[in-house]
Amino acid sequence: MRPASGPDQRLVALFALGVALFNFPLLALFDRAATAFGIPVLYVYIFCVWALLIALLAIVIERPR
Amino acid sequence: MLEGYVIIPVAIAYVGVLFAIAYFGDKRADAGRSIIANPYIYALSLGVYATAWTFYGSVGRAASDGVGFLPIYIGPTLMMALWWLVVRKIIRISKTHRITSLADFVSSRYGKSALLAGLVTIIAVVGIVPYIALQLKAISGSYTILATHPDLALGGPRVVAPFAHDTAFWVALLLAIFAILFGTRHLDASERHEGMVAAIAFESIVKLVAFLAVGAFVTYGMYGGMGDLFARAAEHPRLSTLFAPLSGAAGGYANWAWLTLLSMLAILFLPRQFQIAVVENVNEQHIVKAVWLFPLYMLAMNVFVVPIAFGGVLHFQGTGVDPDTFVLTLPMAEKQHALALLVFVGGLSAATGMVIVETIALSTMVCNDLVMPVLLRMRATRFGGRRDLSGLLLGIRRGAIVGIVLLGYLYFRLAGEAYALVAIGLISFAAVAQFAPAVIGGLYWKGATKAGAFSGLAAGFAVWLYTLLLPSFAKSGWLPASFVTEGPLGFAVLNPYALFGLGGLNDITHAMLWSMLFNIGAYVLVSVVTTQGAAEQAQASRFVDVYRHASSQPDVHAWKGTATVPDLTALLAQFVGAERAQAALAQFARRRGYPDADELPADAALVQFVETALAGAIGGASARIMVASVVKEDALSVDEVMAMLDEASQRIAYSHELEQKSRELMAATAELRAANARLRELDRMKDDFVSTVTHELRTPLTSIRAFSEILHDNPALAVEERQRFLSIVIQESERLTRLINQVLDLAKLESGRAEWQASDVDMRAVVEDSVTAAGQLFTAKDVALDVSVPARVPAVRGDRDRLVQVLINLLSNAAKFVEAGTGRVGVSVTSDAREVSVRVRDNGPGIAAADQHVIFEKFRQAGDTLTEKPQGTGLGLPISRQIVEHLGGRLWVESTPGHGATFAFALPVAPQEK
Q1: Residue B140 and residue B88 share a domain
Q2: What is the residue range of B819's domain?
């Protein structure tokens, strides 16, 4: 039997979150010529979201069961 | 420039280190002290995803598209979120069924179909060989750049060297040797290669370090950090548009989304990824770390891609240096030879890792799913011998590895600088993405059939060929260019880049859209209109419900047939070698509690074990064929499956029956409980009765005793007194006798033991007798008695004496309760066709409605028995009612308090009188 519910639901939710953050229309909000800290905002956005997603994945899956 | 005598030794030294690591890894594995059995190695080895195409190509794409290359790494990151759900299930299934390749997985899921395995293998080989060519090109190209810089920037015209002097050729051979040494050292049932995995994990570190080094050098060495770099890029007319590249491009977001999806599927279905993620997985718990470590690896790998690309474009403005070479040419241009050499080694590691794992994975597929099934069918008789075939198997694999690497080299030589090679990375992704519906669908949808999977794969592959591979040939000049510009033979509707007129998308998005539509469409549609065979059905359930099938013991009931142990042992020995076969069987025997392999019964479990062990060596489909050749296996017919189903439904019926029984039992228990309660009630009533009777008996006894004592103690008592007392004693004795008689009478009546003299009775005589007998009572109390009897009364069936008893009882009751002097009692008889009724009416106090039932109970009298002197025994009415009811009549009372009472009984007319 599979372990009781476990992180399954949270992981699927994270997947959905990632899909939403990495697609139109949220992506379009940052697709502009402006810069943040001297770096184009789109690049800042993508890498920040990426890092956030990795952190959340780590928290969810490493949570002691 | 760097001299060849520097570069080549470095490259050879690097590969030497790889050999050492792999050798060490294999030795440790043989000693049972695995160095790869930890989650960090698993996560790092997944980094084989980053090939030379990533290492060199990402920068090239970034220079033209900005962030456009990132979905290739974001997709896998998203997929990692589902890794725990999807890949863990695939791993569990693969370990259970000894599945060692993607082709094996697909074919096993759909009833171990050799045809399906072959198709998957062909798609994989056709899709991947050009990808291998790309790696060879990268190695050879990077060597050329280092050796000739600055004379030749990779974009320029190339001189094709003869084989003997072509670096790519020697590199290809070296890699083939590596793959053979560490990928086909021996036949192993689990098909795991620990040394190779250790080397791959090491390569992942090397390429990351090299790329980070060059990235840091460009960003912070050549420019003043990210801010400075982007500030300069903002002034560049073309680069500034790449700050926001998505909205401007046609279909920008659609391409982005499709590329993300494509990469999500590639991370799972590229043969090398499947090999590393599933086949080489040591412990499924390693997934936990990989889920976040691998995305972190990719993030680190991509941080400097855009800075290097922009730095390169700014640095080499107008010189025509190919952006794909920036990671090498930038350090070279800055005279950083050591760094350039490190980058070269990094690129080498990216390319070699890919080639090694990919060829091992593909060789397993080619051997098990393409060559063996054909060989086994063609020469089935020859394999009947006892020859050890493990050597042949290894030979086929080694041949396949060399063949695949050389095919890649050939493709590289033929395609050269042509488009077909440059764009091949994504084209390969799109090819393996065709596996997704059959695999993912097969994991969760039991109804998917072999025909459906085959149709889907074939349709998707056909569309892929037409919309991606053929156009790439056209662009390379092997097909007329009009094929992609005007469509084949001028049919614009069939234009491979705008199929059915669907334009405005890039080629990959366009191809993915159509191929997925056809693939999924055919898969679902054919699956729902075809039915599964018995074996297919069994496999589908084992795959989809893998977590429910307890432990890793495969279900052995779905088999029937006969086999002998020596046959099975010999078969296993043929393919894995005698020594390994003996060891495996001995272990199996111990597990089942037999002292050694010779004692094993040739049952379904053994056949299953041999088949699974064989599947590890030659693939599920071939294993089934081989086992079938030594086992007289009656194919599991639909009838037998139906029989199994019958058995199941019978069990369900039994369980229903059980439920029914338990319900009945519960009902019986309830009845018993009620009966028990009734018994207790009766017992209590009996006790009450006994105590009442004793009480009733004591009253006259007390009085008899009291008066007897007076008479005894006072001999001088006056004669009249004495006389009076004696008459009381006599009266009480009579009362006692009456009471006892009545109790006995009642007991008789109730138990049905009373004697009855049944005859036709004339009610008039009964009344006459009763009135005569009771007359004394009335005259003594001076009560008037009216008798009204009609001249003719129909006879009733009954016992005359008993009826007299009833009537006397009613009359004496009436006499008791009326006032002396003014009392009036009337007896009347009436009759109709059915009944004869007798009424005894009095003008006494009457009976309250509440008491009208009570008076028919034993020892109960109306009124307060505590304060009033009881009159009578309290048994007269119950006895009368018993008698009347026994004769089929009824006895009742009508009364209004203050207006007297009427006791009446009615008896049915005797039948013959009618």
Answers
A1: yes
A2: 757-913
